[in-house]
């Protein structure tokens, strides 16, 4: 198993573990299988919006979540839309440093999932 690198961001093991270890991070990743705004994630998971934004920032920095673009909210404001970048992550603690194996989400899977929600 080799250490995985995030696209455009060499998130180290400390960053990934820290992001995954925070309360609500796993819930955000599960809910972000389809593109969602921070407000939608906050509502679905039932967490304060400020907490949701902090977790989103940590997950983006770790390469586990990505901003897919912007869309208009119901109030007419432009909001960022987020989606997770992986479906699975395995962490191996047998060496001096943790090593990660990730199953990345493919663009084809994203398109299929997007069609199901319509």
Query: Which strands sit side by side, in order, in the main sheet?
Result: 1-3-2
Q: What fold name goes in the CATH topology slot?
A: Arc Repressor Mutant, subunit A
Cα separation of the termini: 37 Å
What is the count of distinct domains? 1
Number of strands: 5
How does the major sheet shape up? Answer: 3 strands, antiparallel
Report the mean per-residue pLDDT as an integer.
82
Secondary-structure element series: HHEHHEEEEH
Task: Give the overall shape, derived from the CA principal axes.
Answer: globular
Gyration radius from CA atoms, angstroms: 15 Å
Mind telling me the CATH class? Answer: Mainly Alpha
Q: What is the share of helical residues?
A: 40-55%
Biased composition (Basic and acidic residues): 107-118
Region (Disordered): 97-118
Protein name: Helix-turn-helix transcriptional regulator
InterPro entries: WH-like_DNA-bd_sf, WH_DNA-bd_sf
Describe this entry's structure for a reader.
It holds the Pfam family HTH_20. InterPro entries: WH-like_DNA-bd_sf, WH_DNA-bd_sf. Residues 107-118 have a biased composition (Basic and acidic residues). The protein is α+β, with helices and mostly antiparallel strands and 118 residues long. The protein has one domain: Arc Repressor Mutant, subunit A, CATH 1.10.10. 41% of the residues lie in helices and 25% in strands. Helix 1 packs antiparallel against helix 4 (49-61) and helix 3 packs across helix 4. It starts with 12 loop residues before the first helix and ends with a helix.
